[in-house]
Design brief:
Layout: H1 34-56, H2 59-66, H3 70-76, H4 80-104, H5 111-128, H6 130-142, H7 149-166, H8 170-173, H9 182-202, H10 208-228, H11 231-236
Helix pairs in contact: 1-2, 1-4, 1-6, 2-3, 4-5, 4-6, 4-7, 5-6, 5-9, 5-10, 7-9, 9-10
Length: 256
């Protein structure tokens, strides 16, 4: 190498000090896999829809909740309608999975313990996943555009799970033949548990255990009352035809 000439390859010349290479500047973080991105956005959207309602929620608010850009949300979902459908479907699966897994743990318990444990399942669900419950209830009660089949389907599936564990032999074990009225009892059971659990979740001055005990005794007492007066269950069953059932001429006295 000639003296005084700069090395063509940018290396050092004779006598130049050895220096460490400059550290590589950090680039943009690698993007999450698409499924993980969807999970982050859907979870954020669930919170926004539960808090703001369908009409109040916007893609901008969802993006802010998710800590991402609006454009990133639009890369995953065509718009608010498609995102809402995805959130409802995901929330529905969460609710049904929770109910199914926990009802399985209720099997084989005595009636009172079964009822108590089953009501606790609903309270636990509201405690852990209140946004899913609120989202589904609001969509079901207030109606949404577009209609989402998963909303109605969720309640049907939950009621089927309840009926599966109560209407297939549990009541019969205690001499209570409910027949097709089990569907109505499932609605009554779930509706009670849902409403009372939401009351307690919204106002923690209510004692959770005391409310579960109240629901338990109300249910068990009602079931034993039905065992003594099976005509109430027979009247609540589905009729095989559309004809109006005959009414007995003698009206039984009200025993209170």
């Amino acid at each position: 190498m000639s003296i005084g000439k700069r090395p063509r390859d940018g290396g050092r010349g004779d006598g130049d000090p050895v220096t460490a290479p400059a550290p590589r500047r950090p680039g943009r973080p690698r993007a999450l896999p698409v499924e993980e991105q969807r999970r982050v956005v859907v979870d954020a959207a669930r919170r926004v829809f539960a808090r703001e309602g369908y009409n109040g929620a916007t893609i901008e608010r969802v993006a802010r909740e998710a800590g991402t850009a609006r454009s990133s949300v639009y890369e995953l979902f065509a718009g608010k309608d498609e995102l809402f459908v995805a959130v409802v479907q995901d929330s529905a699966e969460r609710v049904v999975r929770h109910m199914r897994e926990n009802f399985q743990r209720s099997e084989g318990r005595p009636l009172r313990d079964f009822a108590r444990h089953s009501f606790a399942i609903m309270f636990d669900l509201v405690d852990r996943d209140r946004d899913s419950i609120v989202l589904l209830l609001n969509a079901e009660r207030n109606g949404v555009e577009p209609p989402v089949a998963a909303v109605a389907d969720t309640r049907r599936r939950v009621l089927e799970e309840i009926d599966r564990y109560t209407g297939t032999g549990l009541w019969a074990d205690y001499g209570i033949e409910v027949g097709s009225a089990s569907v109505v009892l499932s609605h009554m059971y779930f509706g009670m548990a849902e409403e009372v659990a939401l009351i307690q979740a919204s106002d923690d001055s209510w004692d959770r255990d005391a409310l579960i005990e109240l629901l338990t005794e109300f249910t068990v007492g009602g079931l034993f009352r039905l065992a003594l007066h099976p005509e109430a269950l027979r009247g609540a069953r589905r009729h095989q035809s559309q004809e109006v059932p005959a009414v007995d001429a003698e009206v039984p006295e009200d025993e209170g």
